[in-house]
Amino acid sequence: FKVKKGHQPLKGKHMLITAGPTWEAIDPVRYIANRSSGKQGFAIAAAAAALGAKVTLVAGPVSLRTPDGVDRVDVESAVQMSDAVKNALPADIAVMVAAVADWRPKEYRGEKMKKRGSAPPALVLEENPDLLTNVAAGENRPKLVVGFAAETEDVLDNAKRKRKRKAADWIVANDVSGDVMGGDMNRVQIISEDGVDTLEEMPKMDIAMALVEKMAETLQGEKE
Ligand code: CTP
Ligand code: CA
């Protein structure tokens, strides 16, 4: 990222970011996961570091290089991601971009399951912790808590409901019914208590910088 020399509006701030998918193991060779490249979360980490923030990036399994100046913690499952998030607090800003698997297999099979010509096994699932809800409700709440909502329909309504339900300050909504997943372009809307801010379609790197600049302005506004 090229930023104006001396433009460090996040200097002295700690930003916690989750990114990528989580993997929920079924047996040693199989898992359940969400579709997520991690690109948008890693871009936000890079932009925040460029603006002077101390950044902790908790990353699920992705194949991306660590942005300059970013502290990265690698995890696999949602439970591990939840622990890493707790360890990384306190933070001034939390940005939960990870596509956390909603459910995990209730039982982990220590040996590879075999077909043996029998009926397919039934997978019994249980719910994972909700990291965003826990961070927003926890003691030591970051001043700005941001969630993401990837939706395929009723994008704004779903995102507004999510903001309330999870007690997030912002929800960044994107419509993933097109070819956003894994691509380099994105189009987002920021839902806050002030209403909806619609950004035009642009590269994920530019979206990241626009979001992080807006976060810096919001924190600055609160001090006065
Ligand atoms: N999130 C989280 N932990 C979870 C699930 C979601 O931290 N176990 C966060 C995501 O990182 C994202 C936001 O919550 O910032 C919204 O995720 P999403 O999957 O859209 O929300 P859900 O409540 O899981 O709703 P849905 O049924 O639409 O998946
Ligand atoms: Ca979900």
Automatic annotation (TrEMBL):
<protein>
    <recommendedName>
        <fullName>Coenzyme A biosynthesis bifunctional protein CoaBC</fullName>
    </recommendedName>
</protein>
<feature type="binding site">
    <location>
        <position position="102"/>
    </location>
    <ligand>
        <name>CTP</name>
    </ligand>
</feature>
<feature type="binding site">
    <location>
        <position position="148"/>
    </location>
    <ligand>
        <name>CTP</name>
    </ligand>
</feature>
<feature type="binding site">
    <location>
        <position position="112"/>
    </location>
    <ligand>
        <name>CTP</name>
    </ligand>
</feature>
<feature type="binding site">
    <location>
        <position position="166"/>
    </location>
    <ligand>
        <name>CTP</name>
    </ligand>
</feature>
<feature type="binding site">
    <location>
        <begin position="129"/>
        <end position="132"/>
    </location>
    <ligand>
        <name>CTP</name>
    </ligand>
</feature>
<comment type="similarity">
    <text>In the C-terminal section; belongs to the PPC synthetase family.</text>
</comment>
<comment type="function">
    <text>Catalyzes two sequential steps in the biosynthesis of coenzyme A. In the first step cysteine is conjugated to 4'-phosphopantothenate to form 4-phosphopantothenoylcysteine. In the second step the latter compound is decarboxylated to form 4'-phosphopantotheine.</text>
</comment>
<feature type="binding site">
    <location>
        <position position="162"/>
    </location>
    <ligand>
        <name>CTP</name>
    </ligand>
</feature>
<comment type="similarity">
    <text>In the N-terminal section; belongs to the HFCD (homo-oligomeric flavin containing Cys decarboxylase) superfamily.</text>
</comment>
<feature type="domain" description="DNA/pantothenate metabolism flavoprotein C-terminal">
    <location>
        <begin position="10"/>
        <end position="217"/>
    </location>
</feature>
<feature type="region of interest" description="Phosphopantothenate--cysteine ligase">
    <location>
        <begin position="15"/>
        <end position="224"/>
    </location>
</feature>
